[in-house]
């Protein structure tokens, strides 16, 4: 089992940047694929990015390609989401998720462990 804690959210102007961090407990972090999801008010939770166990395979949703970067540091039990060129439509609660999968997964139902979320607000 793993516990996840997100941090780094906040209020930023359009065009700005934020770096989200997800710290995981436990000694088997490298055995989990990791994902970032987001949920805006009145909308369903959607995948943003995902990264394989060793960080060799990465998925990005089309709407963040070229702007966001996911990375992980297995020695620090941490996964990051670097967000640049932020837009007002990026405003949402961002969640970190983990799953004991060999391959990257992008569906909400495929992840077993979730953090509490961190709010990202982008003003126009």
Write up what this structure looks like:
- With 124 residues, this protein is mainly beta.
- Helices cover 0% and strands 48% of the residues.
- The strands form two sheets. Strands 2, 4, 5, 6, 9, 10 and 11 form a seven-stranded mixed beta sheet that branches. It has a four-stranded antiparallel beta sheet with strand order 1-3-8-7, with no helix packed on it.
- A hairpin with a 6-residue loop joins strand 5 and strand 6.
- It is globular.
- The mean pLDDT is 96.
Number of helices: 0
Order of helices and strands: EEEEEEEEEEE
Overall pLDDT? 96
**Main sheet record:** 7 strands, mixed
Strand content: over 45%
**What is the terminal separation in angstroms?**
40 Å
Percentage of residues in helical conformation: under 10%
User: Cα-atom Rg, whole angstroms?
Assistant: 13 Å
Short overview:
This protein is mainly beta. The chain has strands spanning 4-7, 10-13, 18-24, 33-39, 46-51, 58-60, 68-73, 78-83, 92-99, 113-114, 118-123.
Secondary structure layout plus pairing:
Elements: E1 4-7, E2 10-13, E3 18-24, E4 33-39, E5 46-51, E6 58-60, E7 68-73, E8 78-83, E9 92-99, E10 113-114, E11 118-123
Parallel strand pairs: 2-11
Antiparallel strand pairs: 1-3, 3-8, 4-5, 4-9, 5-6, 7-8, 9-10, 9-11
Key structural traits:
about 120 residues; mainly beta; seven-stranded mixed β-sheet; about 50% strand; globular
